[in-house]
Amino acid sequence: MHSSKTQQDIEKQLVPCPEAGCISQSDSSSRFVQFISVTHPELEASLPQALHFKHQFKGQMDLKADKDTVMAYLDAHQGWFCRCAHPMKVEPVGSNGYILSLGRYGSFGFEVEPQIGLELLPQEEGVYRITTIPVQNKFDHCYQVDFQAAMYLNETSDPDDHSSPPQTSVEWDLALDVAIVFPQFILRLPRKMIQGAGDKLLQQIVRQISQRLTKKVQNDFHATHGI
Question: In sequence order, which residues have a C-beta less than 8 Å from that of residue 28 and are 6 or more positions away?
């Protein structure tokens, strides 16, 4: 069954807005807001009237080195994380945390600047986990984000074959839940349409950022090790 014209119009408008001029930083309009980050159990309790947009994502990249070399690189995230996140703004928090500003996105005169706090937990038996940390600002009654990711390493090269260079596959799983309290002019639209268009936009954001980060991490790793 084909989507209705209204549904198609919504999906066309719910797309990333890459221009820095979506809305001026000095504009005090209440339509411009930021995401804030909290742990998952608080989502339902603190925003009971919010709509939830969820996405499950799997990613993978290959690095031309043995597993121990890759682990040493990932453990030293204070160096590569900020380099690879650019041009996103990154603010370090403590020894393992970062606050990322993802850029601006908008539709129907409703603009957001997603901001999320992440903690890169120390690896346990070769498994790396990333979880959400709070970002305190005045918009915490409007937006909340829960980000939970796990990353696994698998050395794919044959240790008995000394003629082939070592290689390690890095795979990760991401569970993302974004809770948003929309203004009334958005809620006049059918909820099913808002839900579908919002889920699609979230998938686009995750896919675009993941692809960009994967490429930059691969390049940074290989440049760092002269590969």
Answer: none
Contact 146, 176 (CB under 8 A): yes
Name 201's Cβ contacts closer than 8 Å, sequence gap at least 6.
14, 15, 16, 53, 105, 107
Angle value at C-alpha 136, between 118 and 133, nearest 5 degrees: 20
Average per-residue pLDDT in the chain? Answer: 76
pTM of the model: 0.72
**Buried-state track 62-99, b at ≥16 Cβ within 10 A, e below 16:** ebbbebebbbebbeebeebbeebbeebebeeeeebbbb
E-only strand ranges, the chain? 15-16, 32-34, 51-63, 89-93, 97-101, 105-107, 110-113, 115-120, 127-133, 143-155, 168-180
How many other CB atoms are there within 10 angstroms of residue 108's CB atom?
17
CA distance 157 to 172: 19
| Highest mean pLDDT: which range of 58-72, 121-135, 151-165, 175-189 | 58-72
Place of tokens 């820095």: 20
Q: At what angle do helices 191-224 and 5-13 cross, to 10 degrees?
A: 30
Helix (H) or strand (E) holding 46: helix 42-46
Asked whether the predicted pLDDT for residue 145 surpasses 60, the reply is yes
